[in-house]
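Weekly modeling sync, notes
Attendees: S.R. (lead), two postdocs, one rotation student

Agenda item 3: backlog of single-chain predictions. S.R. asked that every request posted to the team notebook include the full sequence so nobody has to chase files. The rotation student volunteered to paste the first one in as an example of the format we agreed on. Action items at the bottom.

Example entry:
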Amino acid sequence: MADVAKLAGVSHQTVSRVLNESERVSSETRERVLAAMTKLNYRPNPTARALASGRSKTVGVITFETPLYGPASALFGIERAAHDAGFFVSVATLPSLDVPSLLSTADSLRRRNVEGILVIAPQREVAHALTQLQQDLPVVAVEAGPPEGVPVVAVDQFDGAARATQHLLDLGHQTVWHIAGPGDWLEALDRVDGWRQSLESAGAPLPKLIVGDWSARSGYELSADLVRDPQVTAIFAANDALALGVLRRIHEAGRDVPGSISVVGFDDVPDAAYYTPPLTTIRQDFITLGRSSFGLLLDEIESGGRAAVHVTIPAQLIVRASTARVAVSH
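Predicted structure, as returned to the notebook:
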């Protein structure tokens, strides 16, 4: 910094103000300092700056290895929000989410001087473990979390599932079968609750719940009996991958979508509009999810306290060609 100050003809303090984007520097002086930095190939030392300012401008994200669209999209939304705010993101990706790994990883990130941690922890056991983290550590649970003790930002899974189910009921289907996600995922449980309550409120029969594992293979295998039953006219799959497997099974059974059976998914993955037929589904706004999560974490960092709030992002029904009014038999 002393070399930059000498070349630019300014004080050491002026160089520091430019680095910290202070408004107390004229545009002409700022350009002169930046030009000197470029000429000398000067790069600020983030560790030294953190020690001097007490701020690392870095947040940690704990997630897990998964090809699933939801967690990956949530991470993308967080990274975009952090970048726009001038923060770095240190991502810790675990082979699987379990309580000991979560707690040790949070401790490791803290030793790296992150200012706060966002946790993408959709599984029930791990979400509840977040309450064991030290109270002075700013933490936000993303997508799902414990009912209390830790702030949570999540898309309204319950309402999304209720919208999917009600859409099919409004088309004249007598009831809706549901292929759910894994029973240890909080989002899957919320979608089951939304489906069930929508049927109960309408006075519709409640079919037996079918539980899958989020994969297209699971949707394909679990829908074998459903597609052979002529009484089954509407299926709500807990994500678009499950729905894709269902569509293939229906095609192989010689039934028509949506002529004899309607299908709704959940997520609105980028390929959903190109399924055969294009898939009616529930869209999750992961960019808003990321911005809201990061904004809530910044509020915690600035206030020094952990707010017990639950921020809900609305879900949106996207109607495409995989659903239609139920066929009337004569």
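Discussion: group reviewed the output briefly. The chain is about 45% helix and 15% strand.
Action items: rotation student to repeat for the remaining queue; S.R. to check formatting next week.
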